[in-house]
Amino acid sequence: KQWYQRRVVITAGEANHLCLQNELPAVRWVGGPEIELIAIATGGRIVPRFSELTPDKLGYAGKVREIEFGTTKDRMMVIEDCKNTRAVTLFLRGSNTMIVQEAKRSIWDAMCVIRNLVRDNRIVYGGGSNEISCAIAVSAAADKVPSIEQYAMRAFADALESVPMALAENSGLAPFATLAEVKSRQIKEDNPRLGIDCMDAGENDMKVQHVIETLIGKKQQIMLATQLVRMILKIDDVRSPGEGE
What stretch of H or E contains 99? Predict the structure, then answer.
């Protein structure tokens, strides 16, 4: 079933009777985020009452239709040929809710990567290669610090190495041996692109494997982890459950 209308009112409440009195088809109980996205796509304005409705607040869409899909004949309203042609809707379908939610999360992660690249198009190579190279640089800088601060710097370098160790362990590799091998190769070959071969491709160069990460995302990860540790270190007393009993 498909139908087309010249004028359609989209409401978030019980305004259907007012629309029907004026021979206007209406779609009721549209959620807040959805009605905001429709307003952006059609170029319309959201108005709280009919008295404030003026021609300049109306949106435009070439087609407004209802379609049926699936064996259960689910219905969905489709708004096409909108004024803002950059607005896009992704329709995900799956055999169960878990698969749909997993696909939704994957698409969200991919969109966040694109957003980060738009903000800052600089990248680093993944596979734990950047963490290993940073750990090597921090350890080298710690050797030049004569004070007790060098121990904190070495601890920070050890923390950075936990990322490639986790990658190796999750890939079924020996974490300590794999990390030691890749770290020694980075120092020997002076190649900061060497990382953990998680896909068992026989190549540790992440540039060859096309494994990259956004620089802005990597910086945020390290900064948030560092801020969390600093917050924990400020706590001078920890009470365990049942300690005072």
Answer: helix 97-119
